[in-house]
Design goal:
By secondary structure, the chain is an alpha+beta fold. The protein folds into four domains: about 140 residues, Endopeptidase. Chain P, domain 1 (Glutathione S-transferase Yfyf (Class Pi), Chain A, domain 2); about 80 residues, no CATH class; about 170 residues, Neurolysin, domain 3; about 180 residues, Neurolysin, domain 3 (Orthogonal Bundle). The protein contains 27 helices and nine strands. The strands form three sheets. The protein has a five-stranded mixed beta sheet with strand order 3-4-5-9-6, sandwiched between helices. A two-stranded antiparallel ribbon has the order 1-2. Strand 4 and strand 5 form a beta hairpin. Helix 3 runs antiparallel to helix 4, helix 9 packs across helix 14 and helix 21 runs antiparallel to helix 22. The chain starts with a helix and ends in a 7-residue tail after the last helix.
């Protein structure tokens, strides 16, 4: 074991900055071999099957391997390099085969079954019983009940799927970075926020380009151009290049085309589902979720679409009329929608998104967020000091430099404290860079687990892609970005504030995928509260907090175009569900064409705006082809019903936030995956969830 990996796995705070690709291969191989040996020992043991003789040693055998492999993936996502890619791709198949071997071990399955059949199992804690139930389900979904030949084929497909998803993600990042839009004339920058235009100019200089400014397709460049740039050809060029990413139409050519990859991913998922006796990959996906069937999810989504559509139609009619009357646009194209929407917002509500952005400096937003978390859940976040950094287990006793724990100079590290006790740690990586994949997400570095008297504390990593500060100006973010930060922080709190001691169901582990968005979407609601906004806003020039008149304008505009947004999310969820339920096509070219055709069918069914024919959205839909949302994108809307209803408890008792917050922590956050999510929700609300709050918050009740 190399010193860097030993410190990473053993220290109180994992040091990502010490990890080098060339130092990780041998420890990974060693951990794989150790885990294989331990699985053999456990499965062949003659000891009576108990939690302590099967589940506990099984978790110990695999946890360190899982953490190191997860770290390799994480470094590839935030510090992409040929070396990290090579390390990942060289080991994908070996690691995938190990997890398949574990899932298909009949002796381990029988031992786990024996524990549940033992009358003494009724004395196990709720969390251990839940972990056992999940384990048996995962054995079955991993192919343990298949015959030998079928297991071999299942394992081969699993390994291939892992490689395809990795390639999909790499292609998307490479295609995003391959495209640039050069600007030669100052008038092309009219309408853009000053900070955005200045960053584009500085980028052109630093890259020694023969241009006044340059824009990449990363979101901090793309979104402001589409929203604010008066120059229509600039908006069109940015939109067009973004819409063609990772496809046969990409600017750089077909080198990063994901068309056949997504087709093969889909076909292999259908084959896996068929092998396990499911009618489709969608049915297989739902086997571990709250929703019971694709039909139930379809009806849920179509019902929401029916309620949202009248509002979306009004939104589009208003956009088109405004574009024609005020902007002399005879047609409303896809590259006009954000721009016209922003101009319409300014006219209707007398403020611009850029005006709002000036009040949201990242450091003050974080301070307000931390204050809220302390008020609601009684925990404090503070930047770490060396006193927090303690070697544990078999780690080297040499104190590592705390500054080496983050993987990049932009990353900040916080301890999460309840009184004098540190309950976990949080890494924040907020700013965009070329080596980081797009979007925002939370990853768990380590889960909470108790072994004897030793408590392993959870560690979470929160990643965003905000525009970084410049030499003369702090980073400011839009209110949408603030909402994104709060969303991901909700995931982090779910992982960090657990009180469950069994790793299998602590934090986000074991939580149904269509409920995992509950805490994240719940946290978004506080971004609209006056006193919370006062605490997190300071104007970048004057230092003044958000004025009440601007806040009132924001509130009046809160549901601006909410019908359009709702339909867009439903469109993506229906598309995801349908392709995983309907398309079983071994001819990859035909499958790729059917994927696009299905998206167009869904748009015909629910959409009120239709993109140009060259748009290749599926080729960049990493949520479902390179993430965990396959036949699960509906989870955002499903969980939004839960989260809006949960937030209503605070609306009903505004004078007792701390009391209600403690109840939310106790019944939902602290429980992790130790019981079904619906039970946690009912324990908090005292009843079944109702969609009324979601419709009310979205301004859609009139059409209900």
């Amino acid at each position: 074991m190399t010193p860097s990996v030993e410190q990473f796995l053993g220290n109180e705070i994992p040091c990502y900055g010490l990890l080098k690709p060339e130092d990780v291969q041998q420890p990974l191989t060693d951990l794989l071999n150790e885990a294989e040996e331990q699985l053999t020992v456990i499965s062949r043991s003659s000891e009576p099957a108990q939690w302590e003789t099967v589940i506990e040693p099984l978790t110990s055998a695999t946890e360190r391997l899982g953490r190191l492999w997860s770290a390799i993936h994480h470094m590839g996502a935030v510090m992409d390099s040929p070396q990290w890619r090579e390390l990942t791709n060289n080991n994908l198949e070996k690691v995938s085969r190990f997890w398949s071997r574990l899932a298909q071990d009949k002796a381990l399955f029988e031992k786990t079954s024996a524990i549940t059949l033992d009358p003494a199992s009724g004395q196990l804690s709720e969390s251990r019983q839940r972990a056992l139930m999940n384990s048996l389900r995962d054995f079955r979904l991993g192919g343990v009940e298949l015959n030998s030949d079928a297991q071999t084929a299942f394992t081969e497909r699993s390994a291939r799927l892992a490689a395809l998803s990795q390639q999909f993600s790499e292609n998307l990042l490479d295609s995003t970075n391959a495209s640039k839009v050069l600007v030669s004339h100052a008038n092309q920058l009219l309408g853009l926020p000053e900070a955005v235009a200045q960053a584009a100019k500085e980028k052109a200089k630093s890259e020694k380009l023969d241009a006044l400014a340059v824009f990449g397709l990363q979101q901090p460049s793309l979104i402001p151009v589409l929203q604010f740039a008066d120059d229509r050809p600039l908006r069109e060029e940015m939109y067009s290049k973004n819409a063609r990413r990772a496809s046969e139409l990409a600017e750089e050519g077909p080198d990063h085309d994901n068309s056949l990859l997504m087709a093969e991913i889909l076909y292999l998922r259908q084959q896996q589902a068929k092998a396990l006796g499911f009618a489709s990959a969608a049915e297989l996906s739902l086997a571990s979720k709250m929703a019971q069937s694709p039909k139930q999810v379809m009806e849920f989504l179509l019902d929401l679409a029916k309620k949202a559509r009248p509002f979306a139609e009004q939104d589009v009619a208003e956009l088109k009329a405004f574009a024609k009357t005020h902007l002399a646009l005879k047609s409303l194209e896809s590259w006009d929608v954000s721009y016209v929407g922003e101009k319409l917002r300014q006219q209707k509500f007398s403020f611009s998104e850029d005006e709002v952005r000036q009040y949201f400096q990242v450091q003050h937003v974080l301070a307000g967020l931390f204050e809220l978390v302390q008020e609601l859940f009684g925990v404090e976040l503070r930047e770490t000091s060396k006193a927090d950094f303690q070697p544990t287990g078999n780690a080297s006793k040499a104190q590592a430099d705390l500054a080496q724990c983050p993987w990049h100079p932009d990353v900040r590290l916080y301890s999460v404290r309840r009184g004098a006790e540190t309950v976990g740690y949080l890494f924040l990586d907020l700013y965009t860079r070329p080596t980081k994949r797009g979007g925002a997400w939370m990853d768990d570095s380590r889960g909470r687990r108790r072994l004897a008297s030793q408590l392993q504390k959870p560690v979470a990593m929160l990643t965003c892609n905000f525009m970084p500060p410049s030499e003369h100006r702090p980073s400011t973010i839009s209110h949408d970005d603030v909402t994104t930060l709060f969303h991901e922080f909700g995931h982090g709190l779910h992982h960090l504030l657990t009180e469950v001691d069994e790793l299998e169901v602590s934090g986000i582990n074991g939580v149904e995928w269509d409920a995992v968005e509950l805490p994240s979407q719940f946290m978004e609601n506080f971004c609209w509260e006056w006193d919370k906004l006062q605490a997190m806003t300071r104007h970048v020039e004057t230092g003044e907090p958000l004025p009440e008149d601007l806040y009132q304008k924001m509130m009046r505009a809160k549901n601006f175009q909410s019908g359009l947004y709702m339909l867009r999310q439903i469109e993506l969820a229906l598309f995801d569900l349908r392709i995983h339920h309907e398309i079983v096509e071994p001819d990859l070219q035909k499958a790729s064409e059917r994927i696009m055709a299905t998206l167009n069918e869904v748009r015909s069914q629910v959409a009120v705006l239709h993109p140009p024919s060259f748009q290749r959205f599926p080729q960049s839909f990493s949520h479902i082809f390179a993430g965990g949302y396959a036949a699960g994108y509906y989870s955002y809307k499903w969980a939004e019903v839960l989260s809006a209803d949960a937030y209503s408890a605070f609306e009903e008792d505004p004078q007792n936030y701390a009391t209600v917050g403690q109840r939310f922590w106790k019944e939902i956050l602290s429980k992790g995956g130790s019981r079904p999510a619906i039970e946690s929700f009912k324990a908090f609300r005292g009843r079944e969830p109702s969609p009324e709050a979601l419709l009310r918050h979205s301004g859609l009740l009139e059409a209900a």
